[in-house]
Write a structure and sequence with these properties.
By secondary structure, the protein is mainly alpha-helical. Among the domains are: 134-201, Alpha Horseshoe (Serine Threonine Protein Phosphatase 5, Tetratricopeptide repeat); 204-254, no CATH class. Helices cover 78% and strands 0% of the residues. It has 15 helices and no strands. The protein has helices spanning 4-13, 17-30, 36-47, 51-64, 69-81, 85-98, 103-115, 119-132, 137-149, 153-166, 171-183, 187-200, 205-217, 221-234, 240-253. The radius of gyration is 22 Å and the shape is globular. The N and C termini lie far apart (73 Å).
Length: 254
């Protein structure tokens, strides 16, 4: 006979999430001192976007073991999703104090610092993440975004280029690097990067908007129209870039 937690894992693989959560709850009742079913339940609740109940599950887990790095890290993730960044930073910092070699937790704390405009601390965490994991594409990408925000275009270019090298298949780093090339007035390279992004994802909303905008700035209006029309056709109705594209086309039609 399989345990409730084993049955929960089976249901989870079958995407029968309510049944999986029920099994994890039964496991927690059977073994009130076992942290595992609470973590499994919280992780699944987080995955389906039920952050408040996920938070409750991780709180219960941490009451059982305040030093459990998985529970602390996952609770930090949930707090960040709830935009409770300062609390998330506390959890991530505790994980780091227990395991200072955890590259992903430095990265996640860096994201939380960046979200609260603690830019220097964010840069330090992204750098530490990269030192621990030189192939951490997310850390390169987000450090590049911070450098771009701070006006350090050369450092941003280096980071986005490195992100592209270590993390293939992600359009966003090409788009971000294209924005830097625009900032330093190199439209040819910017267009090349936006096009690279669109080869990876032909309906990437950000790349379509910025390439289309650059085409209009270069007076290549037919190409700009084409990008904006595809953006309008494929993006969600409430997408910010879609709304900007509609405004631009309205202005051009006047």
């Amino acid at each position: 006979m399989i345990s409730h937690i084993e049955q929960g894992l089976i249901f989870e693989k079958e995407e029968r999430y309510k049944e999986a959560i029920s099994e994890y709850e039964k496991a927690a009742l059977e073994e009130p001192s076992n942290i595992e079913p609470l973590i499994s339940k919280g992780a699944l609740l987080e995955e389906v976007g039920d952050y408040e109940n996920a938070l409750q599950s991780f709180n219960e887990a941490i009451l059982l073991n305040s030093q459990d790095t998985e529970a602390l890290r996952l609770r930090g993730d949930v707090l960040a999703n709830l935009e409770r960044y300062n609390e998330a930073i506390i959890d991530f910092s505790k994980v780091i104090s227990i395991n200072p070699e955890d590259a992903n937790t430095y990265y996640n704390r860096g994201l939380a610092y960046a979200s609260t405009n603690q830019n220097e601390k964010a840069l330090q965490d992204f750098t530490q993440s990269i030192q621990l994991d030189p192939k951490h594409g997310g850390a390169y990408n987000n450090r590049g975004l911070l450098f771009y925000k701070l006006g350090d275009h050369q450092s941003a270019l280096l980071d986005f280029t490195q992100a592209i090298k270590v993390r293939s298949g992600f359009a966003c780093s090409f788009t971000h690097r294209g924005r830097v090339y625009e900032a330093i007035v190199n439209p040819k390279l910017a267009l090349g990067d936006y096009t690279e992004a669109l080869q990876i994802n032909p309906t990437d909303m950000t790349a379509l908007f910025f390439r289309g905008s650059l085409y209009f700035a270069l007076k290549e209006n037919d190409k700009g129209h084409k990008d904006f029309e595809l953006l309008i056709a494929t993006a969600p109705k409430d997408n910010h870039y879609r709304e900007l594209a509609l405004q631009k086309l309205d202005e051009l039609s006047l």
